[in-house]
Amino acid sequence: MSIELRQHFEKITPLTDQEFDYIFSHFTTKKLKKRQFLIQEDDNVTNDYFVVKGLLKASHFDKEGKEYIMQFAMEDWWVTDYQAYFSQTKATLTIDCIENAELLCLSLQNRDKICSELHKIEHFFRKKSNFGYVALQRRILSLLNSNAKERYEQLLLQYPSLFQRVPKTLIAAYLGVSRETLSRLFS
């Protein structure tokens, strides 16, 4: 698991063996099975999770029980309920496994510690946050300005492997349409 994490960090900043070993010592590991929950609404959220293997989804359910998928997270991605993680409040999202998953867990306390001690790690997380803000803005603008077919084509172009791994009902929930609407658009 450490190889994947090191490669991930080094896409943004090079690390010595000693630096990486120190950083890695602040992570714990977690393995989950398909359909198992990582976070449920109202849980305390103590970790940010780096996906080493597997596929997860972060969702919100409205009062009627309708699921709104906020994010998919596959290998080389981070996932958590960031509002709850950074403010140390209860989760408003549910995160569960679409596939068996292997994760590296980083507590907020350990994140703050390694960021304060290693400028390059603070730089790494700042860059990752910036990329996340850009992706979130694109997603919101897509929901506001694109129709379902355009959103589907955009998602297919951006993440083609997702379509081999995710059932169409979940793709529909991510795009904000019903499964039937998705089928009609592409039959």
TrEMBL record:
InterPro entries: cNMP-bd_dom, cNMP-bd_dom_sf, RmlC-like_jellyroll. Pfam families: cNMP_binding. Residues 30-115 form the Cyclic nucleotide-binding domain. Signal peptide: none annotated. It comes from the Bacteria. CDD domains: CAP_ED (cd00038). This is Crp/Fnr family transcriptional regulator. The lineage of its organism: Bacteria, Pseudomonadati, Bacteroidota, Cytophagia, Cytophagales.
